[in-house]
Amino acid sequence: MATDNKQTEITVKQSFPVLNMTCAGCAVSSESTVKALPGVLNASVNFANATLTVEYLPNMTNASVMRRALQDIGYDLFLENESAQQETLEDIHEKKYKKLKNKTIWAIILSIPVVVIGMFFMHMPYGNEIMWLFSTPIVLWLGKDFFGNAWKQAKHRSANMDTLVALSTGIAYIFSVFNMLFPEFWLKRNLEPHVYFEAAAVIIAFILLGKLLEEKAKGNTSSAIKKLMGLQPKTVILMLPDGTEKQVAIDDVNVGDVILVKPGEKIAVDGMVTSGNSYVDESMLSGEPVPVQKKENEKVFAGTINQKGSFQFKATKVGKETMLAQIIRMVQDAQGSKAPVQKLVDKIAGIFVPIVISIAILTFILWLTLDGSEGLIHGLLAAVTVLVIACPCALGLATPTAIMVGVGKGAEQGILIKDAESLELAKKVNAIILDKTGTITEGKPQVTDIQWLREDPVSQQVLFSLEKQSEHPLADAVVKHLENIKPIPLSSFESITGKGAKAAYEGEDYYAGNKKLLSENGIHIAPQLQQHADAWSAASKTVIWFANDKEALAVLAISDKIKETSLEAIQQLKDLDIELYMLTGDNEATAKAIAEQTGIPHYKAEVLPQQKADFVKELHKRGKVVAMVGDGINDSTALATADVSIAMGKGSDIAMDVAKMTIISSDLKKIPAAIRLSKQTVATIRQNLFWAFIYNLIGIPIAAGILYPINGFLLNPMIAGAAMALSSVSVVSNSLRLRLKK
């Protein structure tokens, strides 16, 4: 694609629901149509949740252009921002389901007398005419969508499942009408003029029933999204400046508004508690069943449920910015993404229908050639049965339905999975790198000890002011410890990555950081300070040094408690035969102590952010599939380099943006749970694909009549229609079994 180098072109990535798709071939057809449009860089259509994800250049194309292109081939896009579009997507799906249900009921009612006459009273007077009377509305009214969609596909030299249904039922119906109106054509040739109205009617009835069951089951695969969407209340109680209360709609809440939450109510938006206290159930976000205490200056999140107390909080994030809204968006994106194995399936689905039509034609020719007098009738029946039994839907649904259920189940347990690829890959992980602070430990460091070379108020002020400008979590601990000290103005502040910080006061340089920072600047450390540092390091405390450009002035000990769940999680990961590594910027003694306490066999201390990423590459060279688990900005490079990146939900936003998975509660036990979920999901995908491939590989040859020379068995088209309907439903049902697994 030619681009104007003078201007930087910004791409837009959006997702739109696709309407009127009936099979996996439809997904492939609509995807290739959008991809062919000028300005579209990439497009992907997920059949299971009927979603188009597209990346395009807005100066060359837009959603309306894509919509028109899809409408030309019988599909449509749901564009929420259209003012004329009054119905919600939910309403459209509900209407579609009700319409399909009515069609199915009528098709079954009308096909019953046709089957009874065709199988038991075929020689009754006017039997053919009665069957024709009942089957005509089934084929031409209830089944008209199959013919309409097939015609739209044919105009664009394409074919899908509607083509197969239209051909099979159309041939059976027209052949039967001919035999009913012109029986003498066959009687002259000493052949009985059979009619197959029951086949045409029952095939449509079964396929409509299969689609109805499939729609119902597909609706269940997205139940996690529906649960999340139902967490947000519709109204809130606002506290007005004069102290009065006012009930308003959720859409009218603005950042800065103060909201009152009463016992048992759902919290509407993200915010910060301003008065009162209570316990809040955050299990729907984190998967953790124990309510969390909330008091003044603590964060609360939309969708969580207040327990017995009441409190007021100030709204900090509303609408699409809340954590709940972001989780819903991430889950939707993940459910709409494609696993790597899906690419192969899409290729097969794209050529499936033309291959089936070719097999049906070949079947007809072979019967006509090899079966003499009855070759025409047998060949026609076999060709119709081949067209009916072939099922591209089972193939198309095999992977995405399992991914949808897997991602949804993860979200319910507080494991946010950004894409299908990471869910598929997690089962292969055989090496995990863990950051220490905030991952293995609580991430709430506190100063436990401080030793000065000599008490000096100015030095304390410099240390406090220096750490106040630093963004490191350990600096926060020092600031909290020295909060009563008055800050002083420093000059030339400089943050030194992985080592600490430096600033000047009245012409003299001061340093705060690790021992490496002091060594590199040739700073002397007094033996009595070193003695304290060694003792604290041995007790698994982090040591921070404060110095001027000549000597160390103080040494501080900072302790960060190991999470209660970390020990159990690490043991579970070892039981899964996964190699564990701990990388930390902390000193050797502290790193060793934490590794020994948690049972992590491999660790590296005083590691810089880039060195973490380099270590991931080193493990890659050893043939390892690597997962990186971290929570800080300093982990983001390593997270981006790893095969599977996992961020702790209570860490930095950058880490969560980079990571492919987020553990909302920051509980390490969720990582083995995510790996088990990956194994279960991939196993389900394999079962689905096996069933879909085997069904078609066995079903099509039997439908073609391969058993006829052996035992005289020729498959009835009605049975083929039932089998075809069952195949899609069985694949979706197998995916839904994932929800029941632990």
Automatic annotation (TrEMBL):
<dbReference type="InterPro" id="IPR036163">
    <property type="entry name" value="HMA_dom_sf"/>
</dbReference>
<dbReference type="GO" id="GO:0005524">
    <property type="term" value="F:ATP binding"/>
</dbReference>
<dbReference type="InterPro" id="IPR001757">
    <property type="entry name" value="P_typ_ATPase"/>
</dbReference>
<dbReference type="GO" id="GO:0016887">
    <property type="term" value="F:ATP hydrolysis activity"/>
</dbReference>
<feature type="transmembrane region" description="Helical">
    <location>
        <begin position="105"/>
        <end position="124"/>
    </location>
</feature>
<keyword id="KW-0472">Membrane</keyword>
<dbReference type="InterPro" id="IPR023298">
    <property type="entry name" value="ATPase_P-typ_TM_dom_sf"/>
</dbReference>
<feature type="transmembrane region" description="Helical">
    <location>
        <begin position="376"/>
        <end position="399"/>
    </location>
</feature>
<protein>
    <submittedName>
        <fullName>Copper-translocating P-type ATPase</fullName>
    </submittedName>
</protein>
<dbReference type="GO" id="GO:0043682">
    <property type="term" value="F:P-type divalent copper transporter activity"/>
</dbReference>
<feature type="transmembrane region" description="Helical">
    <location>
        <begin position="163"/>
        <end position="182"/>
    </location>
</feature>
<feature type="transmembrane region" description="Helical">
    <location>
        <begin position="194"/>
        <end position="213"/>
    </location>
</feature>
<dbReference type="InterPro" id="IPR023214">
    <property type="entry name" value="HAD_sf"/>
</dbReference>
<dbReference type="InterPro" id="IPR044492">
    <property type="entry name" value="P_typ_ATPase_HD_dom"/>
</dbReference>
<dbReference type="InterPro" id="IPR036412">
    <property type="entry name" value="HAD-like_sf"/>
</dbReference>
<comment type="similarity">
    <text>Belongs to the cation transport ATPase (P-type) (TC 3.A.3) family. Type IB subfamily.</text>
</comment>
<dbReference type="GO" id="GO:0012505">
    <property type="term" value="C:endomembrane system"/>
</dbReference>
<keyword id="KW-1133">Transmembrane helix</keyword>
<feature type="transmembrane region" description="Helical">
    <location>
        <begin position="714"/>
        <end position="736"/>
    </location>
</feature>
<dbReference type="GO" id="GO:0005886">
    <property type="term" value="C:plasma membrane"/>
</dbReference>
<dbReference type="Pfam" id="PF00403">
    <property type="entry name" value="HMA"/>
</dbReference>
<keyword id="KW-1278">Translocase</keyword>
<feature type="transmembrane region" description="Helical">
    <location>
        <begin position="130"/>
        <end position="151"/>
    </location>
</feature>
<dbReference type="InterPro" id="IPR006121">
    <property type="entry name" value="HMA_dom"/>
</dbReference>
<dbReference type="InterPro" id="IPR008250">
    <property type="entry name" value="ATPase_P-typ_transduc_dom_A_sf"/>
</dbReference>
<dbReference type="InterPro" id="IPR023299">
    <property type="entry name" value="ATPase_P-typ_cyto_dom_N"/>
</dbReference>
<dbReference type="Pfam" id="PF00122">
    <property type="entry name" value="E1-E2_ATPase"/>
</dbReference>
<feature type="transmembrane region" description="Helical">
    <location>
        <begin position="348"/>
        <end position="370"/>
    </location>
</feature>
<dbReference type="InterPro" id="IPR059000">
    <property type="entry name" value="ATPase_P-type_domA"/>
</dbReference>
<feature type="domain" description="HMA">
    <location>
        <begin position="12"/>
        <end position="78"/>
    </location>
</feature>
<keyword id="KW-0547">Nucleotide-binding</keyword>
<dbReference type="InterPro" id="IPR027256">
    <property type="entry name" value="P-typ_ATPase_IB"/>
</dbReference>
<keyword id="KW-0812">Transmembrane</keyword>
<dbReference type="Pfam" id="PF00702">
    <property type="entry name" value="Hydrolase"/>
</dbReference>
<keyword id="KW-1003">Cell membrane</keyword>
<dbReference type="GO" id="GO:0055070">
    <property type="term" value="P:copper ion homeostasis"/>
</dbReference>
<keyword id="KW-0067">ATP-binding</keyword>
<dbReference type="GO" id="GO:0005507">
    <property type="term" value="F:copper ion binding"/>
</dbReference>
<keyword id="KW-0479">Metal-binding</keyword>
<feature type="transmembrane region" description="Helical">
    <location>
        <begin position="689"/>
        <end position="708"/>
    </location>
</feature>
<dbReference type="InterPro" id="IPR018303">
    <property type="entry name" value="ATPase_P-typ_P_site"/>
</dbReference>
